[in-house]
Design brief:
The complex is a heterodimer of chains A (248) and B (45). Chain A has 248 residues and is an alpha+beta fold. Chain A has helices spanning 2-18, 41-56, 58-67, 99-107, 120-126, 157-175, 177-191, 202-213, 217-230; strands at residues 22-27, 30-35, 76-89, 94-97, 116-119, 132-140, 148-155. Chain B has a two-stranded antiparallel sheet. In chain B, strand 1 (5-7) and strand 2 (14-16) form a beta hairpin. Residues 1-21 of chain B have low confidence and may be disordered. The interface between A and B is large, with 59 and 31 residues.
Chain lengths: 248, 45
Amino acid sequence: MAKYYGTFLNTLGSIILKFHGRIVKNIGDSLLYYFPEGTTQSQFVRCLECNLSMLQAHTYLNSKLRCQGLPSLDYRVSSDYGTVAIAKTVLMTEDIFGQPVNICAKINSLARPNSLVIGSDFYEVVRNLECYKFEGIRSFSSGLKNSYPVYSVTYDESKIKKIVGKCIEKALMQMSTANFETVVKHLFEKYDCLLSDCYTRPQCLRDVLVDLYGNASASIMQNIRQQIETCAVPRTISRLACFEDQHI
Amino acid sequence: MGITTYIDANNEDVIPTTGIGEGDCENLVTFGESTKKICVGIVTS
Protein backbone atom coordinates (compact mmCIF):
# COMPACT_ATOMS: atom_id res chain seq x y z
CA MET A 1 0.00 0.00 0.00
CA ALA A 2 2.84 2.39 0.89
CA LYS A 3 4.54 1.66 -2.43
CA TYR A 4 1.25 2.20 -4.24
CA TYR A 5 0.57 5.65 -2.82
CA GLY A 6 4.26 6.48 -2.77
CA THR A 7 4.41 6.00 -6.55
CA PHE A 8 1.19 7.96 -7.06
CA LEU A 9 2.09 10.91 -4.84
CA ASN A 10 5.74 11.13 -5.87
CA THR A 11 5.03 10.93 -9.61
CA LEU A 12 2.44 13.69 -9.45
CA GLY A 13 4.49 15.65 -6.93
CA SER A 14 7.42 15.76 -9.34
CA ILE A 15 5.12 17.23 -12.02
CA ILE A 16 3.95 19.95 -9.60
CA LEU A 17 7.55 20.86 -8.81
CA LYS A 18 8.41 20.94 -12.50
CA PHE A 19 5.83 23.70 -12.92
CA HIS A 20 7.23 25.57 -9.89
CA GLY A 21 4.24 24.70 -7.75
CA ARG A 22 4.71 24.31 -4.00
CA ILE A 23 3.46 21.15 -2.32
CA VAL A 24 1.95 21.90 1.08
CA LYS A 25 1.24 18.36 2.22
CA ASN A 26 -0.40 15.11 1.42
CA ILE A 27 -3.78 14.47 2.99
CA GLY A 28 -4.22 10.73 2.82
CA ASP A 29 -4.18 9.94 -0.88
CA SER A 30 -4.36 13.63 -1.88
CA LEU A 31 -1.77 16.28 -2.56
CA LEU A 32 -2.45 19.92 -1.69
CA TYR A 33 -0.33 22.42 -3.61
CA TYR A 34 -0.27 26.04 -4.68
CA PHE A 35 1.52 28.42 -6.98
CA PRO A 36 3.35 31.09 -4.97
CA GLU A 37 2.80 34.09 -7.23
CA GLY A 38 -0.67 33.92 -8.62
CA THR A 39 -1.64 37.26 -10.08
CA THR A 40 -0.19 37.12 -13.57
CA GLN A 41 -1.54 35.33 -16.58
CA SER A 42 1.60 33.21 -16.92
CA GLN A 43 1.04 31.88 -13.42
CA PHE A 44 -2.55 31.00 -14.22
CA VAL A 45 -1.37 29.18 -17.33
CA ARG A 46 1.29 27.41 -15.29
CA CYS A 47 -1.35 26.17 -12.86
CA LEU A 48 -3.63 24.94 -15.66
CA GLU A 49 -0.71 23.33 -17.48
CA CYS A 50 0.43 21.60 -14.31
CA ASN A 51 -3.06 20.23 -13.68
CA LEU A 52 -3.49 19.02 -17.26
CA SER A 53 0.02 17.53 -17.28
CA MET A 54 -0.85 15.46 -14.24
CA LEU A 55 -3.84 14.11 -16.14
CA GLN A 56 -1.71 13.44 -19.22
CA ALA A 57 0.61 11.41 -16.98
CA HIS A 58 -2.22 8.96 -16.25
CA THR A 59 -1.04 6.35 -18.76
CA TYR A 60 2.59 6.73 -17.69
CA LEU A 61 1.71 6.45 -14.01
CA ASN A 62 -0.37 3.33 -14.52
CA SER A 63 2.35 1.65 -16.57
CA LYS A 64 4.75 2.44 -13.72
CA LEU A 65 2.32 0.83 -11.25
CA ARG A 66 1.84 -2.21 -13.48
CA CYS A 67 5.64 -2.69 -13.66
CA GLN A 68 5.59 -2.98 -9.85
CA GLY A 69 2.72 -5.48 -9.97
CA LEU A 70 0.26 -2.91 -8.62
CA PRO A 71 -3.24 -2.16 -9.89
CA SER A 72 -3.94 0.94 -11.95
CA LEU A 73 -5.71 3.95 -10.49
CA ASP A 74 -7.74 6.98 -11.53
CA TYR A 75 -7.57 10.44 -10.03
CA ARG A 76 -9.23 13.84 -10.04
CA VAL A 77 -7.75 17.32 -10.03
CA SER A 78 -9.37 20.54 -8.78
CA SER A 79 -8.16 24.13 -8.54
CA ASP A 80 -9.42 27.49 -7.41
CA TYR A 81 -8.06 30.99 -7.05
CA GLY A 82 -8.35 33.58 -4.32
CA THR A 83 -7.00 34.99 -1.11
CA VAL A 84 -5.22 32.44 1.04
CA ALA A 85 -3.47 32.82 4.39
CA ILE A 86 -0.11 31.13 4.60
CA ALA A 87 0.75 29.87 8.05
CA LYS A 88 3.81 28.33 9.66
CA THR A 89 3.25 25.21 11.73
CA VAL A 90 5.08 24.45 14.96
CA LEU A 91 7.47 22.30 12.92
CA MET A 92 8.15 25.31 10.68
CA THR A 93 6.42 23.77 7.70
CA GLU A 94 3.95 25.74 5.65
CA ASP A 95 0.19 25.38 5.58
CA ILE A 96 -2.49 27.29 3.71
CA PHE A 97 -5.95 28.32 4.85
CA GLY A 98 -8.84 30.10 3.23
CA GLN A 99 -11.95 29.80 1.17
CA PRO A 100 -10.18 28.74 -2.07
CA VAL A 101 -8.58 25.81 -0.22
CA ASN A 102 -11.88 24.66 1.26
CA ILE A 103 -13.74 25.02 -2.02
CA CYS A 104 -10.97 23.30 -3.94
CA ALA A 105 -11.28 20.28 -1.64
CA LYS A 106 -15.05 20.19 -1.91
CA ILE A 107 -15.35 20.50 -5.70
CA ASN A 108 -12.77 17.78 -6.31
CA SER A 109 -15.41 15.07 -6.18
CA LEU A 110 -17.35 16.84 -8.96
CA ALA A 111 -14.59 16.01 -11.43
CA ARG A 112 -15.00 12.88 -13.50
CA PRO A 113 -12.16 10.37 -13.06
CA ASN A 114 -8.98 11.68 -14.72
CA SER A 115 -10.33 15.15 -15.32
CA LEU A 116 -9.89 18.70 -14.01
CA VAL A 117 -12.44 21.05 -12.49
CA ILE A 118 -11.95 24.65 -11.40
CA GLY A 119 -14.02 27.01 -9.30
CA SER A 120 -15.70 30.12 -10.64
CA ASP A 121 -13.12 32.55 -9.22
CA PHE A 122 -10.35 30.79 -11.14
CA TYR A 123 -12.54 30.51 -14.23
CA GLU A 124 -13.07 34.29 -14.27
CA VAL A 125 -9.33 34.96 -14.63
CA VAL A 126 -8.64 32.26 -17.25
CA ARG A 127 -11.87 32.16 -19.27
CA ASN A 128 -10.38 34.15 -22.18
CA LEU A 129 -7.23 32.08 -22.52
CA GLU A 130 -6.86 30.38 -25.86
CA CYS A 131 -6.17 26.65 -26.08
CA TYR A 132 -8.50 25.68 -23.24
CA LYS A 133 -12.12 24.62 -23.29
CA PHE A 134 -14.25 25.41 -20.23
CA GLU A 135 -17.55 23.71 -19.67
CA GLY A 136 -19.88 24.52 -16.80
CA ILE A 137 -20.74 21.31 -15.03
CA ARG A 138 -22.85 22.25 -12.07
CA SER A 139 -22.96 24.69 -9.23
CA PHE A 140 -21.64 23.89 -5.85
CA SER A 141 -23.47 25.03 -2.75
CA SER A 142 -22.03 25.48 0.68
CA GLY A 143 -22.34 27.81 3.60
CA LEU A 144 -19.44 29.82 2.23
CA LYS A 145 -20.68 30.53 -1.25
CA ASN A 146 -24.14 29.83 -2.49
CA SER A 147 -24.39 28.40 -5.97
CA TYR A 148 -20.72 28.62 -6.82
CA PRO A 149 -20.25 27.52 -10.46
CA VAL A 150 -17.74 24.80 -11.28
CA TYR A 151 -16.16 24.20 -14.70
CA SER A 152 -14.37 21.29 -16.31
CA VAL A 153 -11.21 22.18 -18.23
CA THR A 154 -9.74 20.43 -21.27
CA TYR A 155 -7.52 21.47 -24.14
CA ASP A 156 -9.38 23.13 -27.02
CA GLU A 157 -7.96 20.98 -29.80
CA SER A 158 -9.50 22.99 -32.68
CA LYS A 159 -8.07 26.30 -31.41
CA ILE A 160 -4.67 24.73 -30.84
CA LYS A 161 -4.72 23.35 -34.41
CA LYS A 162 -5.35 26.84 -35.80
CA ILE A 163 -2.65 28.44 -33.66
CA VAL A 164 -0.10 25.79 -34.60
CA GLY A 165 -0.99 26.28 -38.30
CA LYS A 166 -0.46 30.04 -38.00
CA CYS A 167 2.86 29.56 -36.20
CA ILE A 168 4.13 27.25 -38.95
CA GLU A 169 2.97 29.73 -41.57
CA LYS A 170 4.77 32.59 -39.84
CA ALA A 171 8.01 30.61 -39.50
CA LEU A 172 7.95 29.56 -43.17
CA MET A 173 7.08 33.09 -44.36
CA GLN A 174 10.14 34.36 -42.51
CA MET A 175 12.18 32.23 -44.93
CA SER A 176 10.32 33.49 -48.03
CA THR A 177 6.88 33.43 -49.59
CA ALA A 178 8.16 30.96 -52.20
CA ASN A 179 9.34 28.55 -49.49
CA PHE A 180 6.03 28.85 -47.69
CA GLU A 181 4.07 28.09 -50.88
CA THR A 182 6.34 25.16 -51.77
CA VAL A 183 5.89 23.53 -48.36
CA VAL A 184 2.11 24.05 -48.39
CA LYS A 185 1.90 22.57 -51.93
CA HIS A 186 3.98 19.52 -51.04
CA LEU A 187 2.09 18.92 -47.81
CA PHE A 188 -1.22 18.94 -49.64
CA GLU A 189 -0.15 16.96 -52.72
CA LYS A 190 1.80 14.29 -50.89
CA TYR A 191 -0.20 13.92 -47.68
CA ASP A 192 -3.52 15.74 -48.25
CA CYS A 193 -2.45 17.76 -45.22
CA LEU A 194 -3.07 21.45 -44.39
CA LEU A 195 -0.76 23.46 -42.14
CA SER A 196 -3.27 23.28 -39.29
CA ASP A 197 -3.34 19.49 -39.65
CA CYS A 198 0.35 19.42 -38.71
CA TYR A 199 -0.70 19.60 -35.07
CA THR A 200 -2.13 16.08 -35.30
CA ARG A 201 0.15 14.92 -38.11
CA PRO A 202 3.51 16.59 -37.40
CA GLN A 203 5.42 13.79 -39.11
CA CYS A 204 4.01 14.99 -42.48
CA LEU A 205 5.61 18.40 -42.02
CA ARG A 206 8.86 16.88 -40.87
CA ASP A 207 8.99 14.54 -43.90
CA VAL A 208 8.23 17.36 -46.35
CA LEU A 209 10.90 19.59 -44.84
CA VAL A 210 13.48 16.79 -44.95
CA ASP A 211 12.55 16.04 -48.58
CA LEU A 212 12.83 19.70 -49.59
CA TYR A 213 15.67 20.98 -47.46
CA GLY A 214 17.66 17.97 -46.22
CA ASN A 215 19.86 18.74 -43.22
CA ALA A 216 18.65 22.36 -43.14
CA SER A 217 15.22 21.04 -42.10
CA ALA A 218 16.47 20.76 -38.51
CA SER A 219 16.94 24.51 -38.15
CA ILE A 220 13.59 25.16 -39.85
CA MET A 221 11.87 22.86 -37.37
CA GLN A 222 13.64 24.67 -34.57
CA ASN A 223 12.31 28.01 -35.85
CA ILE A 224 8.81 26.56 -35.98
CA ARG A 225 9.11 25.27 -32.44
CA GLN A 226 10.27 28.67 -31.21
CA GLN A 227 7.37 30.31 -32.99
CA ILE A 228 4.94 27.93 -31.29
CA GLU A 229 6.48 28.66 -27.90
CA THR A 230 6.16 32.40 -28.58
CA CYS A 231 2.47 31.93 -29.19
CA ALA A 232 2.20 30.39 -25.71
CA VAL A 233 0.77 27.15 -26.99
CA PRO A 234 0.93 24.78 -24.04
CA ARG A 235 4.31 23.15 -23.77
CA THR A 236 2.99 19.85 -22.68
CA ILE A 237 1.22 18.82 -25.86
CA SER A 238 2.76 15.45 -26.50
CA ARG A 239 1.83 15.53 -30.16
CA LEU A 240 4.34 18.30 -30.70
CA ALA A 241 7.14 16.12 -29.37
CA CYS A 242 8.51 15.67 -32.87
CA PHE A 243 9.34 19.39 -32.88
CA GLU A 244 11.95 18.67 -30.24
CA ASP A 245 15.54 18.45 -31.44
CA GLN A 246 16.06 14.85 -30.47
CA HIS A 247 13.24 13.69 -32.72
CA ILE A 248 14.43 15.47 -35.84
CA MET B 1 7.77 15.82 7.80
CA GLY B 2 5.06 18.27 8.75
CA ILE B 3 2.04 17.90 10.91
CA THR B 4 -0.60 15.84 9.21
CA THR B 5 -3.92 17.65 9.16
CA TYR B 6 -7.34 16.77 7.93
CA ILE B 7 -9.68 19.31 6.37
CA ASP B 8 -13.16 18.28 7.37
CA ALA B 9 -15.42 18.58 4.34
CA ASN B 10 -18.44 19.40 6.44
CA ASN B 11 -17.39 22.05 8.90
CA GLU B 12 -14.11 23.45 7.53
CA ASP B 13 -12.35 22.82 10.82
CA VAL B 14 -8.73 21.87 10.59
CA ILE B 15 -8.14 19.01 12.96
CA PRO B 16 -4.61 18.00 13.90
CA THR B 17 -4.30 14.23 13.77
CA THR B 18 -0.72 13.41 14.64
CA GLY B 19 2.11 14.57 16.81
CA ILE B 20 0.22 17.10 18.91
CA GLY B 21 -0.42 16.52 22.56
CA GLU B 22 -3.15 18.07 24.67
CA GLY B 23 -2.39 21.71 25.39
CA ASP B 24 -0.12 22.10 22.39
CA CYS B 25 -2.83 23.27 20.02
CA GLU B 26 -2.66 26.89 21.12
CA ASN B 27 0.53 27.35 19.15
CA LEU B 28 -0.16 24.84 16.43
CA VAL B 29 0.14 27.35 13.62
CA THR B 30 1.35 30.91 13.34
CA PHE B 31 -0.24 33.24 10.87
CA GLY B 32 1.98 35.94 9.45
CA GLU B 33 0.84 39.23 8.06
CA SER B 34 0.73 37.99 4.52
CA THR B 35 -2.28 36.76 2.68
CA LYS B 36 -1.86 36.12 -1.02
CA LYS B 37 -4.12 35.74 -4.00
CA ILE B 38 -2.90 32.46 -5.39
CA CYS B 39 -3.97 29.38 -7.32
CA VAL B 40 -4.41 26.28 -5.21
CA GLY B 41 -4.88 22.71 -6.35
CA ILE B 42 -5.72 19.27 -5.04
CA VAL B 43 -5.22 15.94 -6.75
CA THR B 44 -6.96 12.92 -5.23
CA SER B 45 -7.03 9.27 -6.23
